[in-house]
Amino acid sequence: MSRSVAFQSNGAMLKGTLYTPEGASQPLPAAIVAGAWTTVKEQMPGTYARELAARGFAALAFDFTGWGESEGAPRYVEDPVVKTADIQAAADFLATLDEVDSARISGLGVCASSGYMADAVASNANLQKVALVAPWLHDPAMAEAVYGGPEVVPGLIALSEAPGAGEQVLLGASAIGSQCDR
User: Fold this and answer.
1) Across 70-79, 116-125, 136-145, 169-178, least confident range
2) How far apart are CA 35 and CA 43, in angstroms?
3) CA distances from 151 to 79, 145, 147 (A)
4) What sign does the dihedral 130-37-61-45 (CA atoms) show?
């Protein structure tokens, strides 16, 4: 079973889907599922959440601030601080639900969200356990290298904010360096 839910995180209304097993009659252990960079709740997080529900968990997949159906600006920005805070808000929200056993809320982080999830679990009393799938535990230096270095990153940001950016296809960071210099 699934139902749409909404909760606040730092003034933004976040949208999610709560998956539960059919016929559950008691408070359930719960999991918050967060996926790789650029995913929304209907993609990777939803897939894992549905599987967890089939195994007896209440599982929440949600769109981070500025992603998918959730509020927030700027849109589609990978911000570890914001995403970690959103996971903490999701844990606080789950703890208020009747169908959730608030003493058994866990986090499942996939790829880039593994670091955000580990940070959230370490600093939120509502989160008891963490599981990581294919963790990419990046830091600012790694992210800069992935996107072509500190001289390329400002140009990528400018391209993403330009009129018509949603229709533009961006190549890998190494190929974009010349576009960023325009």
Assistant:
1) 169-178
2) 8
3) 19, 10, 10
4) negative
- Of all helices (H) and strands (E), which one includes residue 34? strand 28-34
- Over residues 78-114, the pLDDT tens digits come to 899 999 999 999 999 999 999 999 999 999 999 989 9
By DSSP bridging, strand 129-133 and strand 100-110 are parallel
Smallest CA-to-CA distance from 65 within 127, 11, 139 is with 11
The strand order across the sheet containing 12-19 reads 2-9, 12-19, 58-62, 28-34, 100-110, 129-133
Helix (H, G, I), strand (E, B) or coil at 133: strand
Whole-model pTM: value is 0.79
Going by the DSSP 8-state scheme, the letter that residue 83 receives in this structure is H
74 in Cβ contact with 64 (< 8 Å): no
Q: Dihedral, CA atoms, 9, 12, 15, 20, nearest 10 degrees?
A: 20
CA dihedral 168, 173, 175, 180 (to 10 degrees): 70
Kindly tell me the number of DSSP H helices and DSSP E strands found in the chain. 6, 6
Q: What is the CA radius of gyration of the chain?
A: 18
